[in-house]
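User: Some background: our group keeps a shared notebook of sequences we're curious about, and every so often someone picks one and asks for a predicted structure to add to the entry. Today it's my turn. The entry only has the sequence so far, pasted here. Could you supply the structure so I can complete it?
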Amino acid sequence: MNKVLIDTDILLDFFYDRKPFSESAESILVLCEEAKIQGYTTSVIFSNCYYLLRKTAGHKKVVRQLRKLLQILDVLITDKKTLMEALDSEFNDFEDAIQNFSALSNDGVNIIVTRNTKDYKKSDLAVFTPDEFLAVYHSV
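Assistant: Of course. Here's the predicted structure to add to the notebook entry:
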């Protein structure tokens, strides 16, 4: 089973229903919900989603939605070693470095799905846009 880190932009595409991206985001989350792939997030991604969603919706509504999300996604551990790897890396975006090294430090996570693929050029993981990931998934 593919173990996939789902980046912040994909989750926000889903929650904000940002067309045309929300359809692919929803398809990926449905694959997680149906246990066809194992979806992951990090505490950083989760916190960013809360912060951004809270700007347009009340605390209770955001918490309710994020609780639902945690029913279908697991959370990767980000520890001191992960942060040091991110700091020492050649990533231009520190936050993306954290996501990358959180995925690498958790056995079996082999894919990052993001619309921001350019910031993951230094990654040793497979990095796909949602549409690319879905095309590969459905072709296998």
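Suggested note for the entry: Residues 3-139 form a domain with the Rossmann fold fold (CATH 3.40.50.1010). Residues 19 and 120 are 24 Å apart (CA to CA).
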